[in-house]
Specification:
Length: 134
């Protein structure tokens, strides 16, 4: 069974860029993906001090998690993003656009973005947890 995913942006709410205000899901399976951070398969930090490199690795890890369950970016329905510095917002958006543009049509899950003072390792600048439906 393939999930039915409907993205909605009601006219009474602002139209977001790159995500949706509401995502309706009818699915046989839901997957909760733990927060992905910029580490490689050995658990070593990638891109110390370089937000763009870390963002690329985080989305690479998210893609790997999705592939392991037979999903792609198209199956994501919700992201929660934790950033250490909101000054990196444009770089995050660029990485997100590239990731969601990897599927046709581009996915636009619901997204919550939060600036935090620290993640589990001080060198980590970005963490993304996700929910996928299939």
């Amino acid at each position: 069974m393939t999930a039915e995913i409907k993205y909605t942006n009601p006219p009474t709410l602002p139209t977001p860029v790159g995500y949706s205000q509401i995502v309706e899901v009818r699915a046989g399976r839901l997957f909760y993906i733990a927060g992905q951070v910029p580490v490689d398969a050995k658990g070593e930090l990638v891109g110390a001090g370089k937000f763009e490199v870390q963002a690329e690795q985080v989305f690479k890890n998210l893609a790997a998690a999705l592939a392991s369950i037979g999903c792609t970016a198209r199956d994501l329905v919700k992201l929660t993003v934790f950033m250490r510095d909101m000054n990196n917002l444009l770089a995050y958006r660029a990485a997100r656009i590239k990731f969601f543009g990897s599927v046709t049509p581009p996915a636009a899950p619901a997204v919550t973005l939060v600036e935090v003072s620290r993640l589990y390792l001080g060198e980590i600048l970005l963490e993304i947890e996700a929910v996928a439906a299939a």
